[in-house]
Amino acid sequence: MSEVYTTERGEFTGELWRSIEGIYAEILAHPFLRGLTDGTLTEERFRFYILQDAYYLREYARALSLSGVRSPDESALVMFNEHSASAITVERSLHEGFLKDLGVTRDEADRTVASPTTLAYTSYLLKTAALGDYPEVLGAVLPCYWIYGEVGKALLERGSPSPMYQKWIDTYGGEEFGALIEAVLDLTDRVCKDLSLAQKARVAEAFVTTSCYEWMFWDAAWRLEGWLVG
Questions:
Q1: What CATH number corresponds to the domain at position 167?
Q2: Do the domain assignments include residue 2?
């Protein structure tokens, strides 16, 4: 597989990645991901993850559409709306396959209640996409692209004895997904090139925040997180 994108970037996005190297290391070390590659992850946890991810992708698609609307660049508007449509397609096709394998009906999936982490993450994304400065919006949506791409590459090297888990790994470690990441990285570097230090700090804050949510999302699935009251 060719390297379509890299974490060794020399521009602003390279600075962003270096700011979350510790978080990314914690993600790769998480027992949920280790369980995917050694095949020990319980089906119950994977089922929880897939159902929450289906909910997340629907909201993330809305955040991407808002990102396009907020952009002064028509090409970015087109790109983000294409990515938004793609997120919905992935949610419907990829998750349909997993849901069928897991014995989950579409109606059950549609009635899934967002976990506290899923609700917090998607609410933050939508708030930032609607109210943040455009560079902050890019900082907020970027980790879902980039971290999943890097995780996919890392997990491809490990592989999985489980056909179902290997199918998930193949989706996010492929070159097609890598090309999407590269486009968003290049856009972020162009938009943030001439920002002040204070503006860059706000972009970095959004980037680190959603990177933390990425770790929390996998951790919530590992813990089968639910609402403690109600």
A1: 1.20.910.10
A2: no
Count of other CB atoms within 10 angstroms of residue 21? 10
pLDDT in tens, 86-111: 878 776 776 678 888 888 888 888 88
Residue in the block written with tokens 């280790």: 34
Q: Could you give the CA distance from residue 79 to residue 81 in angstroms, rounded to a whole number?
A: 5
Query: How many domains does one find in the chain?
Result: 1
Q: Which member of 59, 91, 150, 214 is catalytic?
A: 214
Q: Which residue range forms the structural domain that includes residue 209? A: 21-223
For the chain, where are the alpha helices, taking DSSP H only?
A: 12-19, 21-29, 31-38, 43-70, 74-101, 106-110, 116-131, 134-158, 163-173, 175-192, 197-223
Q: Is 144 a catalytic residue?
A: yes
Task: 37-46: list long-range contacts, CB under 8 Å, 24+ apart.
Answer: 37/155, 37/158, 37/159, 37/160, 37/165, 37/169, 38/160, 38/161, 39/160, 39/161, 39/162, 39/165, 41/162, 41/165, 43/102, 44/224, 45/221, 45/222, 45/224, 46/98, 46/102, 46/164, 46/165, 46/221
In a domain, 203, yes or no: yes
Active site residue 214: yes
The letter for the amino acid at 121 is Y
| In a domain? residue 6 | no
Place of tokens 């390297």: 3
pTM of the predicted model as reported, rounded to 2 decimal places: 0.92
Catalytic residue (one of 136, 144, 150, 192): 144
142 lies in some domain:
yes
* Chain mean pLDDT for the chain: 90
